[in-house]
Design goal:
about 350 residues; four-stranded antiparallel β-sheet
Amino acid sequence: MKTILHAGLALAAVLVTAVGPVPAAEIAPQYEYTLADFTGPVPFMGVRVRLDAAREEAFILSGGSLRVFGPTGMETFSLPLDPEFGVVQDVAVDETGDLYLLAHEWIQRPGTTGFYLLRCDYRGVAREKLVPTGIPEKLADFLPNTLIYAGGRFYVSVSNRMQVLVLSKRAGLEQVKDFTASLPEEKDIRQNASFGGIAVDPQGRVIVSVPIDFGVYVMAADGQVARFGEAGSRPGNFNIVGPVATDAAGNIFVADVLRSTVNVFDSGLQFVTEFGGYGITDGKLVKPTDLAVSSAGRLFVSQMRNRGVAVFTLSPAGKQESGEAGEVGGRRAAGNKEHEGIRSFTARDVTHASTPREG
């Protein structure tokens, strides 16, 4: 099949000490660095962050390319996307390191879903186009812009509909999770509700934030829904609730976009702590737009105003050591000798030597 991605820059590799799930009571976020290339922190603005959590690689869709950052936070690949394959909306990574691109057809033909998943190997070579099956006629206009891979399934959603489609590994529809009935009955809320963020935890709970309702909804595998969150400026409350994420322990991270904070809740939905706050110094945030947590206990926070993607350690036990990346990460970087002399660089090095570039 056609190669839609092409390898680019290869940089540093490290061994990340995996600390495992961090108990809620021990979460004490500390700023580490901002995702960077060899010229300094990359001034991303409002991008999504997708992780190959097991290998500590971060994937960023930006400017028609898929940019890959290794365990040190340094860019390892830049993978241009071929427009022939539609409009790429999102990316996910499975256990083997294969990439799955969520894309829309340029022209939706009658009787088709209008979206598909494109499976690529770790080198970015397109291997298979997966067209969803079993989509009912009433969802024919469902064009998702968000893709999550968890527990061997895909979860796709679109921000202005209160539904999440659960697809098998072969893109067959398994379930529709509809949050509409869980919303307050006020007409203006139900008509204008949208997702501010979506995540799936290790127990298969689907977690969504709803800005118009100042809350977060958690749907268990059996369809039962719980809600938490209130309007307000106190820690644990929300002004504008935004992106959400979860870690291996089931802790839930929720950004307040207006206050530029990240609120932490345990798996029982109880408030634990918050951090951040508006500012441009280390540890501060500027309007978070996406969150993601790696298996090694690092929280990635995408921001506005060209502040890039800040990375926090959730526990002091999390650290980096010089060494080699995981098997797939190593294979992605294999064969590139051009930057051999700077393989020991980390994003921490360039972050603390410069600030994110403007533009």
